[in-house]
Amino acid sequence: MPRTSKRKIIIVKNIGFCSGVERAVKIAEENSTKYGKVFTIDSLLHNETEIQRLKEKGVEVATENSVGNTIIIPAHGSTEEEVKKFKKSFKNIIDATCPLVLRSAELIKMMKKEGYKIAIVGDKGHRETMVLQDTAGENLLGVFSKEEDVKNIKFSNKIAVIAQTTVTEEMLFKINNELLKKGHEVRFFNTICNETIKRQTESIEVAIKVDCMLVVGGKTSANSKRLFEVVKKANKNTYFIDNEYGVDNIDFSSCNSVGITSGTSTPIWLIGKIIKSVEK
Amino acid sequence: MPRTSKRKIIIVKNIGFCSGVERAVKIAEENSTKYGKVFTIDSLLHNETEIQRLKEKGVEVATENSVGNTIIIPAHGSTEEEVKKFKKSFKNIIDATCPLVLRSAELIKMMKKEGYKIAIVGDKGHRETMVLQDTAGENLLGVFSKEEDVKNIKFSNKIAVIAQTTVTEEMLFKINNELLKKGHEVRFFNTICNETIKRQTESIEVAIKVDCMLVVGGKTSANSKRLFEVVKKANKNTYFIDNEYGVDNIDFSSCNSVGITSGTSTPIWLIGKIIKSVEK
User: Does B2 fall in a domain?
Assistant: First the structure.
């Protein structure tokens, strides 16, 4: 007997990997096919389920003692020190850094040359931010995650503001407003990834229409967590899950319509599994 | 019989002319002594009482038909077109533009060369803003007096923000926050005059201590009107007067202490007259 009241599922239009992550995964897969096994400097992207799948295909996170033919720089980039370290034990270093992160690093180098202090708006300890921090070197003014972080910063004549690609514009603009008080000239570069912004906007559009909302993303994924925050504001019945098993703990009894979105490091095949779980 | 309950008067520490206005007045007086009579392009500063005093000393605002030896560019500056026009009927053009305004104009020229669109935060129609607007020429993005003014502006890759020297930081920061949404790179120059900011801060410090507060300034003076706004927030018994006669209309019966401050185009001799009126 067919079910008469099947749950309506609405998928956010642009879902799955962003172009930067897609590129990094493609580079890793191609090289593992070629060399049998490749290593990556830290996690290639912030999604445990995808990292597991890649591991089965021969893509592995390098440790201190790893030695091999090829090592890949992950989507969030790497510091010069890391590259130097791994150069000793690997023949090829392949760069899969997201082009937007590379661009932020280039902007920092340019601003350093022009004598600016570098203010990075981002999550402390996040790989991308650490890479930018490393690029800023002695010119670093600080890493700022909230307005209060700016309070005790000294006044500088010239400040350049660069953001981690996955922060919200709200966060960036608020912190920038505090930085304005700390410099005579403040040079602001909006380095937030457009795909991240678009994903947020499209997800909110779906969230306000549905009974419940699922945000799929890795536990260590900055953009997924941020997406969850903004979607939750639009629909209080929003749940963060990192794989298809997360669905089991959710009570869907009053959810006739379910919206699904994901962070930009979530593979599309995982979304497929989640849809099946929700339809069950 | 001496009065026993004399009114306490507290004068804000840095009162009277700012250095830019003081310089302009000095230049005008020296030249009028030398040449008997000098003209100025528009009002030398925004204080009618002082303009009147200068007129008696031979400093007069030029009209379309004025002809003479010397004409002075006022503290707020002049457009190239004005200079060109008056060059025909005057031998000497003496520049008494405030150095901070000249600096803003220099920044605009530099930013134009580097391909930035120029956003001016200031009062529409104010001489200083008009001069900056003129300097920006075809690169002008707009003149912004409030956040809403930014709404319909097109997205530009590179925007440079320059402020009229006498706006409040609150106004500047709010408008800048909206401009951040309109450009990939926003280059912000805090061109607000420090003396203006200091005057505001010191006036607020006095205002919160006294029963009543007097803000002395010309009716067309942007910095005086702004000073009145911020002081009024700190003490609701704040009055704006442009000369000593303004005191006559104020009921001081419940004001045991009176604070006095002034815009940066108010001469110190006028403050003296006002103190006498309040003491009466």
Answer: no
